[in-house]
């Protein structure tokens, strides 16, 4: 089955850039997503990228996709304390109605 | 705009008692609907998904069941709860049809504690 992996923890200083990485195994992925979860809340969609794109930028967020290596990353510029949360990457197989989520990366922003 | 509601927000139930969690979506039609469980604040386990009224797909065999009695209503149930059913339950919906990227939108979640 599909597998999506992320590192569990990342710590950065306020104002620095954060880079959260994700690897996936499904070569037929069509869409890849990044979600943010704050404590005790549901997941919030941050951004997504279609598999025929290499990069997508949205304000402080930059998504990079290396389809050859099946590697997805999320860069947060000028990281703020409000960015502290768990970040999930997810991928959708083109043939299915469901999405596979990674295990989540907990981002800690140090003031 | 679309909104998704889940209730209750928190629930404490004894082992062996029944369960009913409800999820409703507003502002869209014919959405795909999903139930997830999240244990220990981490990875999401897909429990059920539905592509239409009465159409339920189960991902994990267990003592839970799901129903979709109306287009925008998704219910998660159990006849007898187990301790292992404790967790954070999330409902989500995604748009369908051409031109959509199938992103999922999540409800606020229900924290279930089985004692």
Describe this structure in words.
The complex is a heterodimer of chains A (111) and B (115). By secondary structure, chain A is an all-beta fold. Chain A is built from no helices and 11 strands. In chain A, strands 2, 4, 5, 9, 10 and 11 form a 6-stranded mixed beta sheet that branches. The radius of gyration of chain A is 13 Å and the shape is globular. The model of chain A has no long low-confidence stretch (mean pLDDT 92). With 115 residues, chain B is mainly beta. Chain B is built from no helices and 11 strands. In chain B, strands 2, 4, 5, 6, 9, 10 and 11 form a 7-stranded mixed beta sheet that branches. Chain B has a 4-stranded antiparallel beta sheet with strand order 1-3-8-7, with no helix packed on it. The radius of gyration of chain B is 14 Å and the shape is globular. The chains are: A mainly beta (111), B mainly beta (115).
Keywords:
heterodimer; A: 111 residues; mainly beta; six-stranded mixed β-sheet; five-stranded antiparallel β-sheet; 11 strands; globular; B: 115 residues; seven-stranded mixed β-sheet; four-stranded antiparallel β-sheet
Helix content of chain B: under 10%
Determine the fraction of residues in helical runs of chain A and give it as a percent range.
under 10%
Following the backbone from N to C, one meets helices and strands of chain B in this order, namely: EEEEEEEEEEE
Beta-strand fraction estimate of chain A: over 45%
How would you state the average pLDDT of chain B, rounded? 91
Instruction: Report the radius of gyration of chain B as a whole number of Å.
Output: 14 Å
Mean pLDDT rating of chain A: 92
Compute the separation of the termini of chain B in Å: 38 Å
DSSP summary, beta strand count of chain B: 11
- Uncertain spans of chain B: none
Strand content of chain B: over 45%
**What best-fitting shape of chain A do the alpha-carbon axes yield?**
globular
Oligomer: heterodimer
Structural class of chain A: mainly beta
Termini gap of chain A: 40 Å
Please write the string of helix (H) and strand (E) elements of chain A: EEEEEEEEEEE
Poorly predicted segments of chain A: none
């Amino acid at each position: 089955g599909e597998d999506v992996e992320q590192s569990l923890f990342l710590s950065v200083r306020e104002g620095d850039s954060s880079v959260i990485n994700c690897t996936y195994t499904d070569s037929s992925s069509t869409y890849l997503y990044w979600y943010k979860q704050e404590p005790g809340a549901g997941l919030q969609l941050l951004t997504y990228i279609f598999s025929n794109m290499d990069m997508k930028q949205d304000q402080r967020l930059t998504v990079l996709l290396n389809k050859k290596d099946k590697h997805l990353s999320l860069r947060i510029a000028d990281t703020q304390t409000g960015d502290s949360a768990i970040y999930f990457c997810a991928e959708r197989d083109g043939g299915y109605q469901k999405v596979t989520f990674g295990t989540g990366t907990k981002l800690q922003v140090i003031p | 705009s679309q909104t998704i509601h889940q209730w209750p927000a928190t629930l404490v139930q004894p082992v062996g008692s029944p369960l009913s969690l409800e999820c409703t979506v507003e502002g869209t039609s014919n959405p795909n609907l999903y139930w997830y469980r999240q244990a220990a604040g981490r990875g999401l386990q897909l429990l059920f998904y539905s592509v239409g009224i009465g159409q339920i797909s189960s991902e994990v065999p267990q003592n839970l069941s799901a129903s979709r009695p109306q287009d925008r209503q998704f219910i998660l149930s159990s006849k007898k709860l187990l301790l292992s059913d404790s967790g954070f339950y999330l409902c989500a919906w995604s748009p369908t049809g051409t031109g959509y990227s199938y992103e999922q939108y999540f409800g606020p979640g229900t924290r279930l504690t089985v004692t």
